[in-house]
Amino acid sequence: MKLTCPICLKERAKRACKQRQGADICPRCCATLRGDGCAGCVHHATSQQYRHERLKGGGDKHFIVQIKPELEGRLHDALSFFDAKKMSAGEAILAEAERTDPGYYLLDFAQGVLLLKRERADDALACFEAATKKYPYFLEAHINMGIIYKMRLDIPNAVRCFKEAIRVGDADDENVVWARSFLADLDRNLRQSDGVSLDTFVQANLVFEEAVHSMERGQWDDALRQLNRCMALNPSNPKTHGNAGICLAKLGRKQDALDALDKAIEIDPGYEPAVMNRAVFERMAGDAPDSPPVEIIDYTRDYKLKKKSIIGEAMGRFFRGGGATTE
């Protein structure tokens, strides 16, 4: 018969806990409760040795976190209430903890979970970040941040959080296994779709963001240089060629701009911004640069996720006197 952990009431109880008079708890709660009262426990000894080796290698700065078992238990109860949709009971526990221990790392995490339940992802993200600053080995907080970034299609930050979760977590933890599998799947998909590794994709994204910032400041030469770097890393992303087309148009290089947009459309015939901007730049008088303000679009965001066609909206704006769309 499967024994459920008495703390989280979700995971399978596998480890005898000294702090719980030998009662079995799950590995996740074991990692959360682990502290000075665990001396002599094999899991505590293993984690201490692992942490010592990591600190000895210079990977982390020294930090101290005070573990409060009774408060931990109450906050885990609150999380269980949230899972059971008993929101008022969980909120009452958080309110009490806020009065007595406002700076506790697990309180930040529990508040983040509550905010996620309320669909306030930005505020939840801030809470999870606060929790990891107080306790850098907080696996679940890293995982939750990664999931928020994943939902936003912010691949570089999602990758960063999931890699940190893998680094700080136990290799056999289900969250670590899931994060490792997700990153492996993402890497495999990118190699098939773009012909690049996940690490290269992330690096190209960072360069692309630098280019976008230059475009926002009207620094078209700098932006074009950065986009060329991005193309060298990942030549198969149509947004890079599309934005290069905008920079070239702004620099008065009409034919080069049209060629860049043609390349974007060749890579993705359904890529609407390139189709739209090509129509814009074809109407330019000679090589005169297009001057209206631009709208920034995220590197990884798929236009097919939008509820209405960008062509239908933006082309109408152009023919009413608007301008190009930065991709």
Describe the structure.
By secondary structure, the protein is mainly alpha-helical. It has four domains: 1-53, no CATH class; 66-134, Serine Threonine Protein Phosphatase 5, Tetratricopeptide repeat; 136-193, no CATH class; 200-319, Serine Threonine Protein Phosphatase 5, Tetratricopeptide repeat, CATH 1.25.40.10. It has helices spanning 27-33, 42-56, 69-83, 87-100, 105-117, 121-134, 139-151, 155-168, 174-193, 198-216, 220-233, 238-250, 254-267, 272-282, 310-319, and strands spanning 15-16, 24-25. The chain has a two-stranded antiparallel ribbon with strand order 1-2. Helix 10 runs antiparallel to helix 11 and helix 13 packs antiparallel against helix 14 (272-282).
Question: Descriptors for this entry?
Answer:
mainly alpha, 327 residues, Serine Threonine Protein Phosphatase 5, Tetratricopeptide repeat
The fold-level CATH name of the largest domain is Serine Threonine Protein Phosphatase 5, Tetratricopeptide repeat
Taking pLDDT < 50 over at least 5 consecutive residues as the criterion, the unreliable ranges are: 44-59, 290-298, 301-323
Kindly estimate the percentage of residues that lie in beta strands according to DSSP. Answer: under 5%
* Largest sheet: spatial strand order: 1-2
CATH class of the largest domain: Mainly Alpha
CATH homologous superfamily classification of the largest domain? Tetratricopeptide repeat domain
Largest β sheet strand count, sense and barrel closure: 2 strands, antiparallel
Q: How is this structure best summarized?
A:
The protein is mainly α and about 325 residues long. It has 15 helices and two strands.
